[in-house]
Structures are given as C-alpha cells and as structure tokens.
Specification:
single chain, 445 residues, 18 helices
Length: 445
C-alpha cells in the first residue's frame, strides 16, 4: 500500500461518522414523509368538512385562501414535528444501524465508548476498527429506504369525496350567509356610487364658488371635501374595516349615513358663520316692507322684500339711469310732471330708508338720495349727490348679493347632502334576503 493511499483511506471514526450521518438523514426524511402523509389525510378530512359546511351552513368558509392556509399549516406542522421528534440521536442511529445491518451492537458499542469511556483510547480504537470493518460495503439505502407509507392510499378517500362534494353538492346556504354577503356587496356598490355622485356635485359647486369669487362658501366646501377625503383614507388604511363590513348588510349604509351627517353638520355650521349675520338681518328687516304707497319703487321694494338682491340691484340701476337722464337737464328745464316724479321718488326713497333703518349703510345712502331729490331749489349739484347716493346703495346691495350667493351655494350643498341621505335611507335589501338558495351548483351541474 502506497503512502498516498494510506493517507486518503478513511479512518474508522470517519467511516462510522458517515454511516451515522446517512442513517440519521434517511430516518428523518422517512419519518417526515410519514408525518406529512398522516397530516395530509387529516387536512383532507378537514377540507371535506369545510366543503360540507360551506355548501349547507356557512357559504364561503371553504374559499381558496382558507384552503391554502390549511395546506400551509399542515406542511409546517409536519416539518416541525419531524424536526422536534423525528430526528434520531447518534446513539439511536447506532442502535438502528446495528439492528438493520446485523452488526451485533458493534456500532452502538463504539458510540457508547466514545461518549462514556473516552479516556481508554486503545479500547475505543479497537472497537471502532472492528465496527468499521463490519460495516464494510453495507448498503444504507437498502436498509433505510425512504418510501411512501402504505396508509397513504387512505388519502384518496377524502380527496375523492371532497372533489365529489365540490362538483355535485348544491349550495343550500341554510343560514343565508352567502346571500347576505352578496346583498352586502351590492349595497356597498350602491353606497359607493351615491358617494361618488355627491362628491362630483360638490366639486362642481366648489368650481362655481371659485369662478364667482365666493371665498366663504369656497372655504366651507373645501373643508367638507377635505374631511370626506380624510375619512376615505382612514378606511383604506383600516384593515379591520372589511371584516366589520361583513357583520351585517346594513352597516355600509349606516357608515355612509354617518358620513353624510358629518357633512350636514359642517355645512350647517358654515351657514351659522357670523359673516352671514348682515344678510340674515337684512332679510328679516326687508320682509316687513310696506308696499302700499310704493309706486315708482314698487319693483325695487318687491325684490327687496323677496330677498332677490340681484333683481333689486337691477331695478336700482334702472332708477339710476332715469335719474341720469334727468340730471342732463337744467333744473329750470324740468317739467312739472318730472318735478312731481322726483318729489314722489324722494318720498318713496325716504320711506324705504326709514323702513330699512336697521341696514345702516343702505338706509343712509337712500336717505341722502331722498334729501337731495326733495330739497328746495333743486340744482345740478343736488342731482349729482342723489346719483352718488344711489350708486352707494347699489354697492351695498352688491355686498348683500354676494352674501346671498354664498348662502345659496351652501344651501345647495346642504340640500345635496340631504337628498343623498334620503337615497341611502331608501336603499332596501334584496327581497330574497334570509331565504336559502337551494340548487345552486358552483362547481358543476
């Protein structure tokens, strides 16, 4: 024997170490396969039970994710169980090797001496050499095969039964869980569509507020839209929201109603802003106008009484145009009829100023116009003063008109929310809700 061969030839401990490593690995894999087969049989039985429950009581419990979770849990449990209890120790592997390879306790004795009598090196070496020689060309693969256990055939029984249930058992849904889930899905679609339409209309109002330069209404609408967007983002992040929505078919509608109520409260709060107090006071005062003696200013006072400030402003513009034409004449060229008309106009503006006394700026402007027109010795300067006072009145009406437009826009938004709440309140569940749907065969015919 050459020196190279002597060096490359494995020693007795190496031979025994390789033998034990092979035995431990093959025993572990065989036990893992046995455990996995047994656990798969149990999992298949559980799958059949889930299918039966799914078709009769709780529709949807045997869906794909649950089956995948069951399969994953089965493989994981089998692997962990095999690692914790199926992997043999070196001593157990030696005993198995002695038994199956007919080594008459040679390998187990060598392992015992290695663990217990490590101080007696000569005795240990002799035992190891004897064990290594006895192992010789023994086939570990033949003595420790990795094979599917015989009881694996029982796995076919629940599998065939499960496939049969999946294909041919109709859905009875005795507790109507599946039907309620379908109704819930339909209701969620209707609620989402209603919320989408409302948001589109809100955006249209917001665009109109920007175009008409109505800052207060714009701020309120932006605040309400921002709150809605914030609630939507929270719902997306809340993973429990979808689970809660399955509890009852009325909750999506209830949640939407709560959102609508929040919008309604925000709009009402916006309408109560102190900036709109002058408009409220003006409407309250002008509703009490007495139109009995009104002639030249009847249309103006009717518009004011009705709170139509846009029409009132146009009537005041017409009145200003008439005064402008008269102002082009010299006071001495005015006819008696024109003078009488100016006197009548002065009286009516004076009464209107008195009736609208709570509207200080508007009332003062009308009073000045009345005094200028009714003064003795009417001249061009007084006519000019009356025109200036009427112009001031028009500016005051324009301010009220702006406030009225903002309030009107917020009223429109409030009405939209209330209509949406009514639509949501009128959503009714399917008339078949609570009735079983017998005869549905999702897997086949």
């Amino acid at each position: 024997m050459s020196l190279t061969e002597a060096v490359s030839e494995p020693t007795a401990p190496q031979v025994l170490g390789r033998l034990l490593a092979q035995v431990r690995r093959r025993v572990f894999l065989d036990r893992l396969l046995t455990n996995l087969t047994f656990d798969l049989i149990l999992a298949s039985i559980a799958w059949v039970v889930l299918l039966a429950v799914d078709r009769t009581l709780f529709s949807g419990v045997a869906d794909g994710p649950r089956v995948a979770t069951l399969l994953g849990a089965t493989v994981t449990v089998s692997f962990l169980r095999s690692i914790l209890r199926g992997r043999p120790s070196r001593h157990d592997a030696a005993l198995l090797a002695d038994h199956r390879l007919l080594l008459k306790e040679r390998v187990s004795s060598a392992v015992y001496l290695e663990e217990k009598l490590s101080g007696d090196a000569e005795l240990r070496r002799l035992v190891e050499v004897d064990a290594a020689r006895a192992v010789g060309g023994a086939s570990v693969a033949e003595s420790f095969p990795i094979r599917i256990p015989r009881f694996a055939a029982w796995l076919l029984v629940p599998l065939v039964l499960g496939v049969a249930l999946h294909l041919w058992l109709p859905t009875f849904d005795l507790l109507s869980r599946g039907l309620r889930r379908e109704v819930l899905a339909d209701e969620e679609k209707l609620v989402s569509e209603e919320k989408r339409k409302l948001e589109e209309k809100f955006q249209e109002l917001l665009k109109q507020a920007q175009e008409k330069e109505l800052p207060d209404a714009q701020n309120v609408l932006e605040l309400v839209s921002a709150q809605q967007q914030s609630n939507a983002n929270v719902e997306k992040k809340d993973g429990a929201h979808a689970e809660k929505a399955e509890k009852t078919s009325s909750e999506p509608r209830k949640e939407a109603m709560v959102e609508m109520s929040r919008r309604e409260d925000a709009l009402r709060k916006g309408l109560e802003n102190q900036k709109f107090d002058p408009l409220k006071e003006a409407r309250k005062t002008l509703r009490a106008l007495d139109l009995k003696s009104a002639d030249l200013t009847r249309k103006l006072q009717e518009a004011l009484k009705d709170g139509d400030f846009d029409k009132a402003r146009k009537e005041l513009e017409d009145l200003k145009a008439d005064l402008s034409k008269l102002s082009e004449k010299r006071p001495s060229d005015l006819t008696e009829e024109e003078r009488a008309r100016l006197q009548k106009l002065s009286e009516e503006l004076g009464k209107l100023a008195k009736d609208s006394k709570s509207l200080s700026r508007f009332s003062k402007a009308l009073s000045r116009a009345s005094e200028s027109l009714g003064a003795q010795g009417l001249n061009s300067q007084k006519m000019s003063d009356s025109l200036e006072s009427v112009s001031q009145s028009m500016e005051d009406l324009q301010s009220l008109l702006k406030l009225a437009q903002q309030v009107e826009m917020l009223d429109q938004a409030l009405e939209l929310v209330q209509l949406s709440k009514e639509e949501l309140a009128n959503l009714h569940n399917c008339p078949d809700c609570g009735k079983s749907k017998v005869g549905s065969k999702p897997g086949g015919t």
